[in-house]
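for the writeup, i need someone to sanity check this before i put it in the appendix. the sequnce is what the collaborator sent (i think, or maybe the updated version? ugh). structure was predicted straight from it, no edits. if anything looks off just tell me and ill rerun, i have time this weekend
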Amino acid sequence: EDDLDAFSPAERIIANFILTNRGGIAFETANSIAEKLQVSPVTVGRFSRKMGYRHFKDLKAGLRTAMSGVPWLVGDQMTAFVGAGGGSDRRGGSLELELAGIIEVYALAETPGWKEIVALLAHSHRVHVTGFQTERGVAMTLAHLLQYAREGVTLPDATAGNFHEVLADDDPAGQCLVLVDMRRYSQQCHDLAAAARRRDIPVVMITDKFCDWIRKYTDHVIAVPTEVELFWSSQVALSCAVNLLVNDVIGVLGGKVEKRLERLSDLYQAHSGHVGSPRRKRTEG
């Protein structure tokens, strides 16, 4: 990990994948990693030898003594689903991978790095959350949930193309930027991370296991497993991370959240209303 800057681009991609996929590396082969990372199996073997091992299988054996694998949730419901014939083997494999991903996110939530990110989301004067491509919905969920818990949370308009909400403030102190994206990564996401770094705005990145460039701009990275045996990459682990982040932020903020929720509930009831509840008369002024 300390020597990432000395690696070639291909070696850095492989190293980053291993560092952020510790629980699942036991299930990989040189060929499967090469296919996922779009490098050659020869490159994977060369990387293994550079790390002091004979080949990738030998590297995995060495890692096994230092890394604990992710447990598998194969209970009665899982067994029934896979064996019933109601879904294909591919869907059964995807369920297993997504369950393992959730467990991995819960383990991440116990790390010091996670707690640093929670502190940023709880205590920064302003928190900007933006997502790109198909991950925009995940970013919106995070922003909207945080807006219920605290004030000062914005969802910058990416279509404007200038991110003035984040970058145009003369005094960037007290801001925090959260980015959500998966490969192939948006150029906007990369450029916004770089611009925020230049302005000393802390950046949090919620992403997949393959984002090797983000650590040039921040150490606050939540890299979750997204590869399953379906057509699209899975956003299940991303959503799990969002739920746990918001829960932990609420835990840090404490009683202030309850007061804000009461105020927002009153406003919603006055202006919109919930099903089954009488709408309150709006007061003027």
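Confidence is low (pLDDT under 50) at residues 66-77. The chain has three domains: 4-64, 76-107, 110-253.
thx in advance!!
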